[in-house]
Design brief:
By secondary structure, the chain is α/β, with parallel strands linked by helices. Helix content is 33%, strand content 22%. The relative contact order is 0.14.
């Protein structure tokens, strides 16, 4: 079985307990305006260009079979640009670029290949209580792949976690989450219209899958991304806290303050970043949100 992977990140400490290896899978049905991994959204390989590493040698332009790589006008400075309408994502330009300016996001890997990679860090998992986390993108889009990877990890006694938006079929959610030792479930905003505005989709599927997970008794930890001016209003946070308190008395919540770490990736992929110049939320505002959840008896921390 093969899957589309765009990164395997070692020594992660924020994707579950202990030291972890996070496997990032390509493909996501949502288009969150704050997404820090835009390279994860498309399910196929993508070509990106890093201006900071380009020396203007023209090697990529020479090998491009469709003429998609073009020299920039002198007024725009050194380097090239990609005509996305012509690009077939063949990867010839990335293979020709010896400076690392042209890169391909995504590669096809078997479950065995990924498992071999994550096993290289098995000692860290055992000494720290860590393990392997599947993230994305949306892991539910490659549910069978993730489920088989988790089965292999479980056989070796390795803790598994999945980071999911919950947007997927019930069968996909069932296949992955039943094999996971921990489900890190994103809940962005409760109002369906607001959810659609922020992510491009309503949250009816997400709510259905979340409630199934809670009813099933599987270990779930909720993650709330905090985006200033978008989903951090008092009414939004109160509604979400009230909803969670009705669902269970012992739900744990992580508040994830906005950061702009992925902004440069949008430029590399020639995409528009809607939250340009957005400021990170203050510690005071983050603490206020944490207090809303803790006031209802939930264990809540800010990451």
């Amino acid at each position: 079985m093969t899957g589309k992977i765009f990164n395997i990140q070692r020594y992660s400490t924020e994707d579950g307990p202990g030291i972890r290896t996070t496997v990032f899978l390509k493909g996501c049905p949502l288009r969150c305006i704050w997404c820090s991994n835009p390279e994860s959204q498309d399910s196929e390989e993508e070509i990106a260009h890093r201006d900071s590493l380009c020396v203007g040698c023209g090697a990529c332009k020479e090998v491009c079979p469709t003429g998609a790589v073009e020299a920039r006008p002198p007024s725009e400075g050194l380097g090239v640009r990609i005509d996305r309408s012509k690009c077939t994502r063949c990867g010839e330009c990335t293979r020709a670029c010896v400076h690392g300016a042209m890169i391909t996001y995504g590669s096809t890997m078997t479950v065995g290949e990924v498992f071999d990679e994550v096993m290289k860090d098995s000692l860290y998992y055992k000494t720290s209580g860590g393990g392997v986390t599947a993230s994305g993108g949306e892991p539910l889009m490659q549910a069978d792949f993730v489920a088989e990877l988790f089965q292999r990890c479980r056989h070796m006694g390795i803790h598994t976690a999945v980071e999911t938006s919950g947007y997927g079929t019930t069968d996909a959610c069932l296949a992955v989450c039943r094999e996971a030792d921990l489900v890190l479930f994103d809940l962005k905003v409760l109002d369906p219209a607001e959810h659609e505005r922020l992510t491009g989709r309503t949250n009816d599927v997400i709510v259905r899958n979340f409630e199934w997970l809670i009813e099933s008794g599987l270990p779930v930890r909720v993650r709330v991304p905090l985006i200033p001016g978008e989903n951090d209003g008092a009414s939004d946070i109160e509604a979400l806290a009230e909803y969670l308190s009705r669902m269970s008395n012992d739900i744990a919540v992580d508040v994830i303050p906005y950061h702009g770490y992925g902004e440069n990736k949008y430029k590399m992929l020639d995409r528009n970043y809607e939250l340009e110049n957005m400021r990170v939320p203050s510690a005071k505002n983050v603490n206020k949100v944490v207090e809303v959840f803790t006031a209802r008896g939930m264990v809540c921390v800010a990451q």
